Amino acid sequence: MLRNLYRFYLYAVFIAMVIFAASGVFQFLQTMLGLTSLRGQNTPPSNAAVTQAVVYALVALLVAVMIGGLHYWLMRRDMRDDADAGNGGVRAFFLNALELVSYITGVSAGISVIGSFGQQYPPGLNIPCALAITSLCVWGVADLERRRAPAVAGAAVVFQRLHFYGAQLVLLGIITFYWLGTVGQAIDDVVFQGRGAGLTPCGGFTVCPGANLLSESAALFWIVLFWLGYGYLSRKDTGSLLRRVLHYLSFGYGLIFVIVGVYRAASLLVLSMLGALPGQNQISGPYAPYDSVAPLSFGALACAIYLYWLRGAMRQQPPERAVMTLIVNAIAAIVAGVVFWWGCGSVILNLLNQIMPTSPLSPGDWANAWALLIGGVAYLPLDVILRRRTAQSGFVAPLRGFVLALLGVGIVAGAIGGATALYFYGTAGLGVQSGDWQFAAHTGLAALIIGALLAVIYLRIARREHLIGVAPKPPAPSAITSPMPEEVSTQPAVAPQTEETSPVVMPAPQAAPERPVPQIVDALLAGTISRDEAVAQLEGLNEVNIP
Questions:
Q1: Residue 253 to residue 245: CA distance in whole angstroms
Q2: In which band, very low, low, confident or very high, does the pLDDT at 482 lie, cut at 50, 70 and 90?
Q3: With CB atoms counted within 10 Å of each terminal CB, which end of the chain scores lower, N or C?
Q4: Could you tell me the CA-to-CA distances from 271 to 183, 195, 267, 477 in Å, in that order?
Q5: Residue 19: CB partners within 8 Å, gap ≥ 6?
Q6: Mean pLDDT: which of 49-58, 182-191, 212-221, 425-434 is highest?
Protein backbone atom coordinates (compact mmCIF):
# COMPACT_ATOMS: atom_id res chain seq x y z
CA MET A 1 0.00 0.00 0.00
CA LEU A 2 2.74 2.48 0.96
CA ARG A 3 4.69 1.56 -2.15
CA ASN A 4 1.65 2.28 -4.34
CA LEU A 5 1.16 5.66 -2.66
CA TYR A 6 4.76 6.49 -3.44
CA ARG A 7 4.29 5.48 -7.07
CA PHE A 8 1.09 7.49 -7.27
CA TYR A 9 3.04 10.53 -6.17
CA LEU A 10 5.82 9.90 -8.70
CA TYR A 11 3.53 9.43 -11.72
CA ALA A 12 1.18 12.25 -10.73
CA VAL A 13 4.05 14.74 -10.59
CA PHE A 14 5.63 13.39 -13.79
CA ILE A 15 2.36 13.60 -15.76
CA ALA A 16 1.73 17.10 -14.39
CA MET A 17 5.17 18.20 -15.64
CA VAL A 18 4.49 16.68 -19.07
CA ILE A 19 1.24 18.63 -19.32
CA PHE A 20 2.99 21.80 -18.13
CA ALA A 21 5.67 21.41 -20.79
CA ALA A 22 2.98 20.75 -23.40
CA SER A 23 1.20 23.97 -22.44
CA GLY A 24 4.38 25.93 -23.13
CA VAL A 25 4.85 24.25 -26.52
CA PHE A 26 1.18 24.86 -27.38
CA GLN A 27 1.43 28.55 -26.52
CA PHE A 28 4.55 28.90 -28.63
CA LEU A 29 3.09 27.06 -31.63
CA GLN A 30 -0.20 28.91 -31.70
CA THR A 31 1.62 32.24 -31.58
CA MET A 32 4.06 31.30 -34.33
CA LEU A 33 1.30 29.86 -36.53
CA GLY A 34 -0.65 33.06 -35.93
CA LEU A 35 1.96 34.81 -38.02
CA THR A 36 0.94 32.67 -41.04
CA SER A 37 -2.22 32.49 -43.10
CA LEU A 38 -3.61 29.90 -40.67
CA ARG A 39 -4.82 32.73 -38.45
CA GLY A 40 -7.67 33.33 -40.92
CA GLN A 41 -9.45 36.63 -40.42
CA ASN A 42 -7.80 37.26 -37.05
CA THR A 43 -5.12 39.86 -36.53
CA PRO A 44 -1.52 38.63 -36.30
CA PRO A 45 0.07 38.52 -32.83
CA SER A 46 2.17 41.45 -31.75
CA ASN A 47 5.89 41.38 -30.96
CA ALA A 48 5.09 41.43 -27.25
CA ALA A 49 2.84 38.36 -27.64
CA VAL A 50 5.61 36.54 -29.51
CA THR A 51 8.16 37.39 -26.80
CA GLN A 52 5.84 36.25 -24.05
CA ALA A 53 5.12 32.98 -25.84
CA VAL A 54 8.81 32.23 -26.33
CA VAL A 55 9.71 33.02 -22.71
CA TYR A 56 6.80 30.98 -21.36
CA ALA A 57 7.76 28.00 -23.50
CA LEU A 58 11.37 28.11 -22.31
CA VAL A 59 10.38 28.45 -18.66
CA ALA A 60 7.86 25.62 -18.92
CA LEU A 61 10.34 23.31 -20.61
CA LEU A 62 13.08 24.15 -18.10
CA VAL A 63 10.89 23.52 -15.05
CA ALA A 64 9.40 20.38 -16.59
CA VAL A 65 12.84 18.96 -17.39
CA MET A 66 14.15 19.65 -13.90
CA ILE A 67 11.17 18.49 -11.81
CA GLY A 68 9.83 15.92 -14.23
CA GLY A 69 13.28 14.56 -15.01
CA LEU A 70 14.00 14.02 -11.33
CA HIS A 71 10.76 12.12 -10.81
CA TYR A 72 11.29 10.14 -14.00
CA TRP A 73 14.68 9.03 -12.65
CA LEU A 74 12.97 7.98 -9.41
CA MET A 75 10.42 6.03 -11.46
CA ARG A 76 13.16 4.20 -13.32
CA ARG A 77 14.94 3.38 -10.06
CA ASP A 78 11.72 2.06 -8.57
CA MET A 79 11.29 -0.22 -11.59
CA ARG A 80 14.85 -1.50 -11.21
CA ASP A 81 14.31 -2.25 -7.52
CA ASP A 82 10.92 -3.92 -8.01
CA ALA A 83 10.36 -6.18 -10.99
CA ASP A 84 6.58 -5.83 -10.66
CA ALA A 85 6.59 -2.03 -10.84
CA GLY A 86 6.42 -2.02 -14.66
CA ASN A 87 3.19 -4.01 -14.52
CA GLY A 88 1.68 -1.92 -11.73
CA GLY A 89 -1.82 -0.52 -11.85
CA VAL A 90 -0.70 3.00 -10.90
CA ARG A 91 1.71 3.25 -13.83
CA ALA A 92 -0.86 1.81 -16.27
CA PHE A 93 -3.60 4.15 -15.06
CA PHE A 94 -1.63 7.37 -15.51
CA LEU A 95 0.01 6.50 -18.83
CA ASN A 96 -3.11 5.08 -20.46
CA ALA A 97 -5.28 7.96 -19.24
CA LEU A 98 -2.78 10.46 -20.67
CA GLU A 99 -2.68 8.60 -23.98
CA LEU A 100 -6.45 8.39 -24.26
CA VAL A 101 -7.08 12.09 -23.59
CA SER A 102 -4.22 13.36 -25.76
CA TYR A 103 -5.13 11.01 -28.63
CA ILE A 104 -8.79 12.04 -28.78
CA THR A 105 -7.87 15.72 -28.40
CA GLY A 106 -5.24 15.60 -31.15
CA VAL A 107 -7.43 13.73 -33.63
CA SER A 108 -10.43 15.99 -33.01
CA ALA A 109 -8.33 19.14 -33.43
CA GLY A 110 -6.85 17.74 -36.64
CA ILE A 111 -10.34 17.20 -38.06
CA SER A 112 -11.29 20.84 -37.51
CA VAL A 113 -8.08 21.97 -39.20
CA ILE A 114 -8.36 19.77 -42.29
CA GLY A 115 -12.11 20.25 -42.70
CA SER A 116 -11.78 24.06 -42.65
CA PHE A 117 -9.47 24.31 -45.65
CA GLY A 118 -11.08 25.90 -48.69
CA GLN A 119 -13.82 27.79 -46.89
CA GLN A 120 -14.55 31.30 -48.00
CA TYR A 121 -14.32 32.69 -44.48
CA PRO A 122 -12.23 30.14 -42.58
CA PRO A 123 -11.88 30.49 -38.82
CA GLY A 124 -8.53 30.87 -37.16
CA LEU A 125 -6.73 27.55 -37.55
CA ASN A 126 -3.56 28.34 -35.65
CA ILE A 127 -5.07 27.30 -32.31
CA PRO A 128 -6.51 23.89 -33.38
CA CYS A 129 -3.38 23.18 -35.44
CA ALA A 130 -1.11 23.86 -32.44
CA LEU A 131 -3.40 21.79 -30.24
CA ALA A 132 -3.30 18.84 -32.67
CA ILE A 133 0.50 18.90 -32.92
CA THR A 134 1.04 19.22 -29.17
CA SER A 135 -1.52 16.58 -28.22
CA LEU A 136 -0.19 13.99 -30.66
CA CYS A 137 3.36 14.64 -29.44
CA VAL A 138 2.24 14.05 -25.85
CA TRP A 139 0.54 10.86 -26.98
CA GLY A 140 3.75 9.72 -28.65
CA VAL A 141 5.82 10.36 -25.51
CA ALA A 142 3.32 8.52 -23.29
CA ASP A 143 3.06 5.60 -25.73
CA LEU A 144 6.85 5.17 -25.87
CA GLU A 145 7.04 5.10 -22.09
CA ARG A 146 4.14 2.62 -21.87
CA ARG A 147 5.75 0.30 -24.43
CA ARG A 148 9.01 0.29 -22.49
CA ALA A 149 7.32 -1.86 -19.83
CA PRO A 150 4.01 -3.08 -21.31
CA ALA A 151 1.24 -4.42 -19.12
CA VAL A 152 0.96 -8.19 -18.95
CA ALA A 153 -1.62 -8.99 -16.24
CA GLY A 154 -3.89 -7.65 -13.54
CA ALA A 155 -5.20 -4.11 -13.27
CA ALA A 156 -2.55 -2.84 -15.68
CA VAL A 157 -4.04 -4.87 -18.53
CA VAL A 158 -7.54 -3.66 -17.63
CA PHE A 159 -6.48 0.00 -17.86
CA GLN A 160 -4.64 -0.64 -21.12
CA ARG A 161 -7.69 -2.29 -22.68
CA LEU A 162 -9.98 0.50 -21.50
CA HIS A 163 -7.61 2.91 -23.20
CA PHE A 164 -7.48 1.00 -26.51
CA TYR A 165 -11.13 0.08 -26.88
CA GLY A 166 -12.44 3.26 -25.26
CA ALA A 167 -10.55 5.30 -27.85
CA GLN A 168 -12.06 3.18 -30.64
CA LEU A 169 -15.57 3.76 -29.31
CA VAL A 170 -15.09 7.53 -29.03
CA LEU A 171 -13.61 7.72 -32.52
CA LEU A 172 -16.48 5.61 -33.89
CA GLY A 173 -18.95 8.16 -32.53
CA ILE A 174 -17.00 11.03 -34.11
CA ILE A 175 -16.81 9.15 -37.42
CA THR A 176 -20.59 8.72 -37.37
CA PHE A 177 -21.16 12.48 -37.26
CA TYR A 178 -18.64 13.31 -39.99
CA TRP A 179 -19.55 10.36 -42.22
CA LEU A 180 -23.25 11.22 -42.38
CA GLY A 181 -22.50 14.85 -43.23
CA THR A 182 -19.66 14.26 -45.69
CA VAL A 183 -21.19 11.34 -47.60
CA GLY A 184 -24.55 13.10 -47.71
CA GLN A 185 -22.84 16.18 -49.15
CA ALA A 186 -20.91 14.05 -51.65
CA ILE A 187 -24.05 12.27 -52.93
CA ASP A 188 -25.83 15.59 -53.27
CA ASP A 189 -22.94 17.18 -55.19
CA VAL A 190 -22.15 14.24 -57.47
CA VAL A 191 -25.61 12.84 -58.18
CA PHE A 192 -27.99 15.77 -57.68
CA GLN A 193 -25.65 18.66 -58.58
CA GLY A 194 -26.05 20.28 -55.18
CA ARG A 195 -29.83 20.73 -55.42
CA GLY A 196 -30.44 19.24 -51.99
CA ALA A 197 -28.16 21.53 -50.01
CA GLY A 198 -28.82 24.47 -52.32
CA LEU A 199 -25.08 25.05 -52.85
CA THR A 200 -22.99 25.00 -55.97
CA PRO A 201 -20.71 21.93 -56.05
CA CYS A 202 -17.15 22.85 -55.22
CA GLY A 203 -14.07 20.66 -55.41
CA GLY A 204 -10.40 21.08 -54.71
CA PHE A 205 -8.74 23.16 -52.04
CA THR A 206 -10.18 26.34 -53.52
CA VAL A 207 -12.32 29.02 -51.93
CA CYS A 208 -15.92 27.77 -51.81
CA PRO A 209 -19.06 29.62 -50.66
CA GLY A 210 -19.99 26.68 -48.43
CA ALA A 211 -18.44 23.44 -47.34
CA ASN A 212 -15.50 22.16 -49.39
CA LEU A 213 -16.09 18.53 -50.34
CA LEU A 214 -12.41 17.66 -50.79
CA SER A 215 -11.34 19.08 -47.43
CA GLU A 216 -14.25 17.37 -45.63
CA SER A 217 -13.36 14.07 -47.29
CA ALA A 218 -9.75 14.48 -46.21
CA ALA A 219 -10.88 15.17 -42.62
CA LEU A 220 -13.05 12.05 -42.70
CA PHE A 221 -10.14 9.98 -44.03
CA TRP A 222 -7.96 11.40 -41.23
CA ILE A 223 -10.19 10.16 -38.43
CA VAL A 224 -10.92 6.80 -40.10
CA LEU A 225 -7.16 6.27 -40.40
CA PHE A 226 -6.63 6.86 -36.68
CA TRP A 227 -9.60 4.63 -35.83
CA LEU A 228 -8.17 1.77 -37.87
CA GLY A 229 -4.74 2.48 -36.40
CA TYR A 230 -5.92 1.73 -32.89
CA GLY A 231 -7.46 -1.48 -34.15
CA TYR A 232 -4.08 -2.43 -35.56
CA LEU A 233 -2.35 -1.67 -32.25
CA SER A 234 -4.69 -4.03 -30.38
CA ARG A 235 -4.71 -6.81 -33.00
CA LYS A 236 -2.78 -9.26 -30.79
CA ASP A 237 -5.09 -8.89 -27.80
CA THR A 238 -7.26 -11.79 -28.98
CA GLY A 239 -8.10 -13.27 -25.59
CA SER A 240 -9.69 -10.15 -24.14
CA LEU A 241 -13.31 -10.51 -23.06
CA LEU A 242 -13.66 -6.70 -22.98
CA ARG A 243 -12.51 -6.55 -26.61
CA ARG A 244 -15.12 -9.07 -27.69
CA VAL A 245 -17.96 -7.43 -25.80
CA LEU A 246 -17.19 -3.94 -27.13
CA HIS A 247 -16.65 -5.24 -30.66
CA TYR A 248 -19.97 -7.08 -30.60
CA LEU A 249 -21.69 -3.93 -29.32
CA SER A 250 -20.00 -1.87 -32.03
CA PHE A 251 -21.14 -4.38 -34.64
CA GLY A 252 -24.69 -3.95 -33.37
CA TYR A 253 -24.23 -0.18 -33.52
CA GLY A 254 -23.24 -0.41 -37.18
CA LEU A 255 -26.14 -2.77 -37.89
CA ILE A 256 -28.56 -0.14 -36.60
CA PHE A 257 -27.37 2.26 -39.30
CA VAL A 258 -27.74 -0.44 -41.95
CA ILE A 259 -31.38 -0.83 -40.95
CA VAL A 260 -31.81 2.96 -40.86
CA GLY A 261 -30.59 3.11 -44.46
CA VAL A 262 -32.98 0.34 -45.53
CA TYR A 263 -35.81 2.04 -43.63
CA ARG A 264 -35.23 5.37 -45.38
CA ALA A 265 -35.05 3.73 -48.80
CA ALA A 266 -38.28 1.83 -48.11
CA SER A 267 -39.94 5.05 -46.92
CA LEU A 268 -39.09 6.77 -50.19
CA LEU A 269 -40.39 3.77 -52.14
CA VAL A 270 -43.74 3.78 -50.30
CA LEU A 271 -44.06 7.57 -50.57
CA SER A 272 -43.40 7.42 -54.31
CA MET A 273 -46.11 4.76 -54.65
CA LEU A 274 -48.49 7.04 -52.74
CA GLY A 275 -47.46 10.06 -54.83
CA ALA A 276 -46.12 12.01 -51.86
CA LEU A 277 -42.35 12.25 -52.43
CA PRO A 278 -40.64 14.85 -50.19
CA GLY A 279 -38.57 17.73 -51.53
CA GLN A 280 -35.01 17.34 -52.77
CA ASN A 281 -33.60 18.94 -49.63
CA GLN A 282 -35.20 16.09 -47.64
CA ILE A 283 -33.62 13.39 -49.82
CA SER A 284 -30.03 14.52 -50.34
CA GLY A 285 -27.56 16.75 -48.58
CA PRO A 286 -25.79 16.67 -45.23
CA TYR A 287 -27.95 14.94 -42.59
CA ALA A 288 -31.01 14.83 -44.89
CA PRO A 289 -33.86 12.95 -43.14
CA TYR A 290 -34.45 10.64 -46.14
CA ASP A 291 -30.80 10.15 -47.14
CA SER A 292 -30.32 6.38 -47.19
CA VAL A 293 -26.84 6.12 -48.74
CA ALA A 294 -24.90 7.76 -45.90
CA PRO A 295 -26.25 5.64 -43.00
CA LEU A 296 -26.25 2.46 -45.11
CA SER A 297 -22.63 2.90 -46.18
CA PHE A 298 -21.48 3.79 -42.67
CA GLY A 299 -23.27 0.82 -41.14
CA ALA A 300 -21.84 -1.54 -43.74
CA LEU A 301 -18.31 -0.23 -43.08
CA ALA A 302 -18.63 -0.53 -39.30
CA CYS A 303 -20.09 -4.05 -39.50
CA ALA A 304 -17.42 -5.21 -41.96
CA ILE A 305 -14.52 -3.81 -39.92
CA TYR A 306 -15.69 -5.24 -36.60
CA LEU A 307 -16.50 -8.60 -38.16
CA TYR A 308 -13.00 -8.64 -39.62
CA TRP A 309 -11.48 -7.88 -36.21
CA LEU A 310 -13.62 -10.54 -34.54
CA ARG A 311 -12.76 -13.14 -37.16
CA GLY A 312 -9.09 -12.26 -36.80
CA ALA A 313 -9.30 -13.02 -33.09
CA MET A 314 -11.17 -16.26 -33.75
CA ARG A 315 -8.51 -17.49 -36.20
CA GLN A 316 -6.24 -18.05 -33.24
CA GLN A 317 -9.03 -19.81 -31.33
CA PRO A 318 -10.80 -22.07 -33.90
CA PRO A 319 -13.25 -23.71 -31.43
CA GLU A 320 -14.90 -20.33 -30.87
CA ARG A 321 -15.71 -19.59 -34.52
CA ALA A 322 -19.10 -21.24 -34.27
CA VAL A 323 -19.77 -19.28 -31.07
CA MET A 324 -18.92 -16.00 -32.83
CA THR A 325 -21.29 -16.87 -35.67
CA LEU A 326 -24.11 -17.55 -33.23
CA ILE A 327 -23.51 -14.32 -31.30
CA VAL A 328 -23.44 -12.23 -34.49
CA ASN A 329 -26.61 -13.97 -35.63
CA ALA A 330 -28.29 -13.26 -32.30
CA ILE A 331 -27.31 -9.57 -32.32
CA ALA A 332 -28.62 -9.15 -35.87
CA ALA A 333 -31.86 -10.94 -34.97
CA ILE A 334 -32.38 -8.76 -31.88
CA VAL A 335 -31.88 -5.48 -33.75
CA ALA A 336 -34.00 -6.54 -36.71
CA GLY A 337 -36.64 -8.03 -34.41
CA VAL A 338 -37.09 -4.81 -32.44
CA VAL A 339 -37.52 -2.86 -35.69
CA PHE A 340 -39.92 -5.44 -37.14
CA TRP A 341 -42.20 -5.48 -34.11
CA TRP A 342 -42.01 -1.69 -33.92
CA GLY A 343 -43.32 -1.66 -37.47
CA CYS A 344 -46.11 -4.07 -36.48
CA GLY A 345 -47.06 -1.70 -33.68
CA SER A 346 -47.11 1.24 -36.10
CA VAL A 347 -49.44 -0.65 -38.45
CA ILE A 348 -51.79 -1.47 -35.56
CA LEU A 349 -51.68 2.17 -34.43
CA ASN A 350 -52.65 3.36 -37.92
CA LEU A 351 -55.50 0.85 -38.03
CA LEU A 352 -56.76 2.01 -34.63
CA ASN A 353 -56.57 5.64 -35.74
CA GLN A 354 -58.50 4.70 -38.88
CA ILE A 355 -61.19 2.78 -37.01
CA MET A 356 -61.50 5.41 -34.28
CA PRO A 357 -60.25 8.54 -36.05
CA THR A 358 -58.36 11.11 -34.06
CA SER A 359 -56.68 13.03 -36.88
CA PRO A 360 -56.37 12.30 -40.62
CA LEU A 361 -53.64 9.81 -41.46
CA SER A 362 -50.95 11.17 -43.75
CA PRO A 363 -49.00 9.15 -46.34
CA GLY A 364 -45.99 9.54 -44.11
CA ASP A 365 -47.72 7.56 -41.34
CA TRP A 366 -48.21 4.52 -43.56
CA ALA A 367 -44.80 4.95 -45.15
CA ASN A 368 -43.19 4.94 -41.71
CA ALA A 369 -45.05 1.77 -40.66
CA TRP A 370 -44.36 -0.24 -43.81
CA ALA A 371 -40.76 0.96 -43.97
CA LEU A 372 -40.16 -0.30 -40.43
CA LEU A 373 -41.58 -3.68 -41.40
CA ILE A 374 -39.36 -3.86 -44.47
CA GLY A 375 -36.31 -2.71 -42.51
CA GLY A 376 -36.76 -5.45 -39.91
CA VAL A 377 -38.10 -8.26 -42.09
CA ALA A 378 -34.71 -10.01 -41.94
CA TYR A 379 -35.60 -10.88 -38.35
CA LEU A 380 -37.83 -13.75 -39.53
CA PRO A 381 -35.13 -15.79 -41.34
CA LEU A 382 -32.52 -14.82 -38.75
CA ASP A 383 -34.72 -16.27 -36.00
CA VAL A 384 -35.05 -19.59 -37.85
CA ILE A 385 -31.34 -19.74 -38.70
CA LEU A 386 -30.36 -19.03 -35.10
CA ARG A 387 -32.48 -21.90 -33.79
CA ARG A 388 -31.12 -24.35 -36.35
CA ARG A 389 -27.51 -23.39 -35.68
CA THR A 390 -28.11 -23.64 -31.96
CA ALA A 391 -29.55 -27.13 -32.34
CA GLN A 392 -26.52 -28.18 -34.41
CA SER A 393 -23.88 -26.69 -32.12
CA GLY A 394 -25.52 -27.20 -28.74
CA PHE A 395 -24.37 -23.73 -27.57
CA VAL A 396 -27.57 -22.08 -26.29
CA ALA A 397 -26.27 -18.81 -24.77
CA PRO A 398 -26.84 -16.63 -27.91
CA LEU A 399 -30.33 -18.08 -28.43
CA ARG A 400 -31.10 -17.51 -24.76
CA GLY A 401 -29.95 -13.89 -25.03
CA PHE A 402 -32.09 -13.38 -28.14
CA VAL A 403 -35.19 -14.90 -26.57
CA LEU A 404 -34.79 -13.06 -23.27
CA ALA A 405 -34.13 -9.76 -25.07
CA LEU A 406 -37.35 -9.93 -27.08
CA LEU A 407 -39.22 -11.29 -24.08
CA GLY A 408 -38.01 -8.33 -22.03
CA VAL A 409 -38.94 -5.89 -24.78
CA GLY A 410 -42.40 -7.42 -24.96
CA ILE A 411 -42.97 -7.28 -21.20
CA VAL A 412 -41.77 -3.68 -20.90
CA ALA A 413 -43.74 -2.52 -23.96
CA GLY A 414 -46.85 -4.32 -22.78
CA ALA A 415 -46.61 -2.95 -19.25
CA ILE A 416 -46.01 0.67 -20.28
CA GLY A 417 -48.51 0.49 -23.14
CA GLY A 418 -51.17 -1.09 -20.95
CA ALA A 419 -50.69 1.49 -18.22
CA THR A 420 -50.86 4.33 -20.79
CA ALA A 421 -53.99 2.98 -22.44
CA LEU A 422 -55.68 2.34 -19.09
CA TYR A 423 -54.87 5.84 -17.89
CA PHE A 424 -56.17 7.72 -20.93
CA TYR A 425 -59.22 5.52 -21.53
CA GLY A 426 -60.02 5.58 -17.82
CA THR A 427 -59.73 9.34 -17.44
CA ALA A 428 -61.76 9.85 -20.64
CA GLY A 429 -64.47 7.53 -19.28
CA LEU A 430 -64.61 9.64 -16.14
CA GLY A 431 -65.10 12.77 -18.23
CA VAL A 432 -61.57 14.12 -17.85
CA GLN A 433 -59.92 14.55 -21.26
CA SER A 434 -56.59 16.20 -21.95
CA GLY A 435 -55.20 17.21 -25.34
CA ASP A 436 -55.02 14.53 -28.00
CA TRP A 437 -55.83 11.76 -25.53
CA GLN A 438 -57.17 9.40 -28.19
CA PHE A 439 -53.86 9.22 -30.04
CA ALA A 440 -51.97 8.59 -26.80
CA ALA A 441 -54.49 5.92 -25.78
CA HIS A 442 -54.27 4.23 -29.19
CA THR A 443 -50.49 4.27 -28.97
CA GLY A 444 -50.63 2.58 -25.57
CA LEU A 445 -53.13 0.00 -26.83
CA ALA A 446 -50.93 -0.82 -29.84
CA ALA A 447 -47.91 -1.22 -27.57
CA LEU A 448 -49.95 -3.47 -25.27
CA ILE A 449 -50.98 -5.73 -28.17
CA ILE A 450 -47.43 -6.04 -29.50
CA GLY A 451 -46.02 -6.55 -26.01
CA ALA A 452 -48.54 -9.29 -25.26
CA LEU A 453 -47.75 -11.07 -28.54
CA LEU A 454 -44.02 -10.94 -27.88
CA ALA A 455 -44.42 -12.10 -24.29
CA VAL A 456 -46.64 -15.06 -25.27
CA ILE A 457 -44.48 -16.17 -28.21
CA TYR A 458 -41.12 -15.97 -26.52
CA LEU A 459 -42.31 -17.16 -23.13
CA ARG A 460 -43.49 -20.37 -24.79
CA ILE A 461 -40.20 -20.69 -26.66
CA ALA A 462 -38.22 -20.06 -23.49
CA ARG A 463 -40.17 -22.70 -21.57
CA ARG A 464 -40.01 -25.21 -24.41
CA GLU A 465 -36.27 -24.79 -24.86
CA HIS A 466 -35.67 -24.60 -21.06
CA LEU A 467 -34.10 -21.15 -21.45
CA ILE A 468 -35.59 -19.76 -18.24
CA GLY A 469 -36.01 -21.23 -14.80
CA VAL A 470 -34.19 -24.29 -13.55
CA ALA A 471 -33.11 -26.75 -16.19
CA PRO A 472 -34.60 -30.24 -15.76
CA LYS A 473 -32.36 -32.63 -13.91
CA PRO A 474 -31.15 -35.64 -15.86
CA PRO A 475 -32.74 -38.95 -14.79
CA ALA A 476 -30.84 -40.85 -12.14
CA PRO A 477 -28.99 -43.89 -13.50
CA SER A 478 -30.94 -47.06 -12.82
CA ALA A 479 -29.37 -49.82 -10.74
CA ILE A 480 -27.67 -52.47 -12.84
CA THR A 481 -28.98 -55.91 -11.87
CA SER A 482 -27.50 -59.20 -12.85
CA PRO A 483 -29.67 -61.36 -15.08
CA MET A 484 -31.70 -64.12 -13.53
CA PRO A 485 -30.31 -67.59 -13.83
CA GLU A 486 -33.31 -68.64 -15.93
CA GLU A 487 -32.62 -65.75 -18.42
CA VAL A 488 -28.98 -66.71 -18.73
CA SER A 489 -29.75 -70.35 -19.12
CA THR A 490 -32.19 -69.66 -21.97
CA GLN A 491 -29.49 -68.13 -24.20
CA PRO A 492 -28.40 -70.45 -27.01
CA ALA A 493 -25.13 -72.18 -26.29
CA VAL A 494 -22.13 -71.45 -28.45
CA ALA A 495 -21.06 -75.07 -28.36
CA PRO A 496 -22.95 -78.18 -27.32
CA GLN A 497 -22.42 -79.22 -23.75
CA THR A 498 -21.40 -82.73 -22.77
CA GLU A 499 -21.51 -84.73 -19.57
CA GLU A 500 -17.77 -84.34 -19.11
CA THR A 501 -17.95 -80.53 -19.36
CA SER A 502 -20.61 -79.15 -17.07
CA PRO A 503 -22.54 -76.14 -18.39
CA VAL A 504 -21.47 -72.79 -17.05
CA VAL A 505 -24.97 -71.83 -15.93
CA MET A 506 -27.38 -74.38 -14.61
CA PRO A 507 -31.11 -73.89 -14.37
CA ALA A 508 -32.28 -73.04 -10.91
CA PRO A 509 -33.65 -75.96 -8.99
CA GLN A 510 -37.33 -75.92 -8.38
CA ALA A 511 -38.33 -75.42 -4.82
CA ALA A 512 -39.46 -78.63 -3.21
CA PRO A 513 -43.18 -78.71 -2.59
CA GLU A 514 -44.36 -78.73 1.02
CA ARG A 515 -44.74 -82.35 2.45
CA PRO A 516 -44.20 -84.14 -0.95
CA VAL A 517 -44.00 -87.83 0.30
CA PRO A 518 -47.51 -87.99 1.93
CA GLN A 519 -49.07 -86.42 -1.14
CA ILE A 520 -47.43 -88.94 -3.45
CA VAL A 521 -48.54 -91.82 -1.17
CA ASP A 522 -52.13 -90.50 -1.01
CA ALA A 523 -52.21 -90.16 -4.79
CA LEU A 524 -50.96 -93.77 -5.16
CA LEU A 525 -53.59 -95.09 -2.71
CA ALA A 526 -56.33 -93.10 -4.40
CA GLY A 527 -55.38 -94.68 -7.74
CA THR A 528 -54.70 -91.38 -9.53
CA ILE A 529 -51.10 -92.41 -10.26
CA SER A 530 -49.54 -95.75 -10.89
CA ARG A 531 -46.79 -97.43 -8.89
CA ASP A 532 -44.13 -96.60 -11.51
CA GLU A 533 -45.19 -92.92 -11.55
CA ALA A 534 -44.97 -92.74 -7.78
CA VAL A 535 -41.47 -94.27 -7.85
CA ALA A 536 -40.37 -91.77 -10.53
CA GLN A 537 -41.69 -88.81 -8.54
CA LEU A 538 -39.94 -90.01 -5.39
CA GLU A 539 -36.67 -90.44 -7.29
CA GLY A 540 -37.04 -86.93 -8.78
CA LEU A 541 -37.68 -85.53 -5.32
CA ASN A 542 -34.45 -87.03 -4.09
CA GLU A 543 -32.47 -85.50 -7.02
CA VAL A 544 -33.86 -81.99 -6.29
CA ASN A 545 -32.97 -82.16 -2.61
CA ILE A 546 -29.38 -83.32 -3.25
CA PRO A 547 -27.09 -80.15 -3.19
A1: 12
A2: very low
A3: C
A4: 23, 20, 6, 65
A5: 138
A6: 49-58
